[in-house]
Design brief:
The chain is mainly α and 107 residues long. Helices cover 77% and strands 0% of the residues.
């Protein structure tokens, strides 16, 4: 299943702002989302996720912020690269240590 549309950050921000501004006019958050989503051109579930993400980022809802999630992803990537480099260095060290032993035995 592929995504048929990509929404720009501006469209997402505008949609979230619309929901937040008109939230009081509806009996629930879901009702507000269902009303506004067709105007933006997305499904209500997508808009609801955007609203939840904005609330987490604003500290209004518990969860991992977008910035924290991105930072963790970068750190995990860096950690993976460092582990790979350590493995290479460990292998090279063992190779050169064995080569040194072989050289000493032949002398």
């Amino acid at each position: 299943m592929t995504k048929s549309k990509k929404f720009s950050p501006e469209v997402r921000e505008r949609a979230v702002r619309l929901v937040q501004e008109h939230r009081g006019e509806y009996p629930s958050l879901w009702a507000a989302v269902q009303s506004i989503a067709p105007k933006i051109g997305c499904v209500p579930q997508t808009l609801l996720e955007w609203v939840k993400r904005a609330e987490v980022d604003a500290g209004e809802r518990p969860g991992t912020t977008t910035a924290d999630a991105q930072r963790m992803k970068e750190l995990e990537r860096e950690n993976k690269e460092l582990r790979r480099a350590n493995d290479i260095l460990r292998t090279a060290s063992a190779f050169f240590a064995q080569a040194e032993l072989d050289r000493k035995l032949k002398s």
